[in-house]
Amino acid sequence: MTPWLSVVIPTRNDAAALARTLDHLLGLPGMEGAEIIVAAAGDPGGTERAVDGRARLLQPGGSTRAQLMNAGAAVARGRALFFLHADSFPPNEALALIARALADPRVVGGAFEHLFVEPVWSLRAITWINRVRYRLTRNYYGDQGLFVRADVFHALGGYRDLALMEDLDFAQRLKRRGRSVLIRT
User: Fold this and answer.
1) For 78, which of 6, 54, 82, 134 could close a Cys bridge (C-beta 3.0–4.6 Å)?
2) Which among 76, 68, 41 has a CA at the least distance from the CA of 148?
């Protein structure tokens, strides 16, 4: 069965966080209709142990986040792509929320709200400031979990190979392509 969603996780020397994220993902409702692709650079042994057969593992040779995400997207079979950082947990109903958003043909992609797990006041302040920023601008970052229709991703040429802010660049190009939504969960 062809998956409707491909979860693409870029990782570089972050096996412990990746293992926790994979544990979380595999417990989400609807994962049977999705595939997980990990595109990794560095620490091949640790990454292989973290993946442990739970995802398709690529070691494409590139090391920037953009190169890793593009490599994962190149082999993805889903009609939609969900880019997730190796240390990020999407909400429990993430797959259903993405499906619901993409049921609207005008929607080309979007992202989730962002929240730090740590109850530190400075991180809560950053969360609040970021929420104001991305709610006003619709400029999303990768740690929010970005999703996009696969055909739109490929038409946009994927992520540009930038050393920083490849996610912001992509989000800006995405919203010019159609409706980009924020899932407030």
Assistant:
1) 6
2) 76
